[in-house]
Amino acid sequence: MALPKFKILGYRSPREAVMATVGPLERRVLDLLAGHEEATVRGILSELGDAYAYTTVMTTLDRLFKKGFLDRRQEDRAYVYRLRYSDEDVKIGIAGDFISSLIDAASGRPEPVLACIVEAVSDRDRELLDDLERLVKDKKAELGSRVD
């Protein structure tokens, strides 16, 4: 079944919507942190160069922590920051939220949404369809083994 393709003007992908909540410096700091397991304000500041004050970087890291993008721990008098989620974790989380919202909006009839997912997967590759089937079987087995 061929599904119609629509282009929605002004539409932003869920990932773009999430990234719109961070400013340019926050985005740059996230990119720098992606290259490190952990970093301090001083470490990030040294990579940014002389363009920013220590307190600006400190505030930026604190904001990213409060927005849920970073974890931190205290070491002596300084915080050590690390990314809370990998880029893949973010993509999977956004996709899950998006698919859940589509199913919730399906007015009790999730079959069309599920059919779209199957169609999109099978359009790309037959092996992906086999992977989807295996994932469904694994999830059914997991749910069947749960004791309520």
What is the strand tally?
Answer: 3
Name the CATH superfamily assignment of the largest domain.
Winged helix-like DNA-binding domain superfamily/Winged helix DNA-binding domain
Q: Count of helical segments?
A: 7
Overall tally of domains = 2
Radius of gyration: 21 Å
What's this model, at a glance?
The chain has 148 residues and is mainly alpha-helical.
Give the secondary structure arrangement, pairings included.
Layout: H1 14-19, H2 24-34, E1 39-40, H3 41-48, H4 54-66, E2 70-75, E3 78-83, H5 87-104, H6 111-124, H7 126-145
Helix pairs in contact: 2-4, 3-4, 6-7
Describe the structure.
The protein has 148 residues and is mainly α. It folds into 2 domains: 21-83, Arc Repressor Mutant, subunit A, CATH 1.10.10; 87-143. Helices cover 61% and strands 9% of the residues. Strands 1-3-2 form a 3-stranded antiparallel sheet. The radius of gyration is 21 Å and the shape is elongated. The model has no long low-confidence stretch (mean pLDDT 83).
Spell out the key features of this protein.
3-stranded antiparallel beta sheet, elongated, mainly alpha, Arc Repressor Mutant, subunit A, 2 domains, 148 residues
